[in-house]
User: What shape does this take?
Amino acid sequence: MPVITSIADLKRLHKRRTPKMFYDYAESGSYTEQTFRENTEDFAQIRLNQRIARDMTGRSTKSTMLGQDVAMPVALAPVGMTGMQRADGEIKAARAAEKFGVPYTLSTMSICSIEDVAENVSQPFWFQIYTLTDDDYNKRVLDRARAAGCSALVITVDLQLLGQRHKDLKNGLTAPPKFTPAVLADLATKWRWGIEMLQTKRRFFGNIVGHVESAADPASLASWTAEKFDQSLNWDRIKQLMDMWGGKVILKGILSEEDAEMAAATGADAIVVSNHGGRQLDGALSSIRMLPKIVNAVGDKTEVWLDSGIRSGQDVLKALALGAKGVMIGRAYVYGLGAMGEPGVTKALEVIQKELDTSMALCGKRRIEDLGRDDLLIPNGFFDTYS
Ligand code: GLV
Assistant: This one.
């Protein structure tokens, strides 16, 4: 068992153990990947304010998200094809999250179905949908999520069409993979992945295959989005989807103050400041740069969370100190899953919690709600560089 001390260690193992097509799917942004890179680079520009001689005993990373108690305010984001990173990946990630005490969000584009995950956990999880034109599908999938006891709905509002990820096209990404010579050569070195995959029957998009009438190629994310996603999406339609669910709603993919105002006015219980991990509008600013303005605009009306770029507990601290009430992680836990399965997701959460706890202590803070702007040192003009 290798000694894992950071998310970067898990990422290295993930790359070594997972077919290139799926590692690349996780580890890409759209087009030039500028936004993908800047999400992490911008976190690195923000520094922490070391303080001493402050009682650091009795610390806790506990908090709440949407009124739910969490071991730390870090939820697992919806990630497509998680069950291709490792066999039964969604079940493994959901179980790790439940045991750790943080929320898990199941993506519509998952391999394990809503029912598969529900059968393997005992606490409610969250479910994510895209904004599709097909209301028949929308209603059925929301009924299934309700029947499975999902306690909140994440609506992804920044993906009406897919930002092109060059690697996915070059790799011929599908779930399950098509056995081209290049794929077979790659799989020959990923035997552990292959053996586990042969032992599960969950190798297709479990919420889609068998649940939709037509999909040009049900194995391809790109063709599903091109065919079904609602390019005429507007706020009335978002409201309709929220009403169709009738429970707590998180709108994910907000990157401007005006959109945040609209989301709050439409009744979102939480919003996620997000550029979809740099996978959609390449050239958009990083989430962390946009966060303070959005918190300022709507932080008293709805819970503001952040995703895109979190790779450590220090990053979590920075987002919370800038006013986020919580964050979502995607790649950081997927690295763990691809590296070591369920224990790898647990390890990713442990690493982040330990880093968060230690950094809080060294900033002289004991509780999540005490974190604030005084914990940070930020380059002058950082938030006003672009207008
Ligand atoms: C799906 O949401 C993706 O970003 O691939």
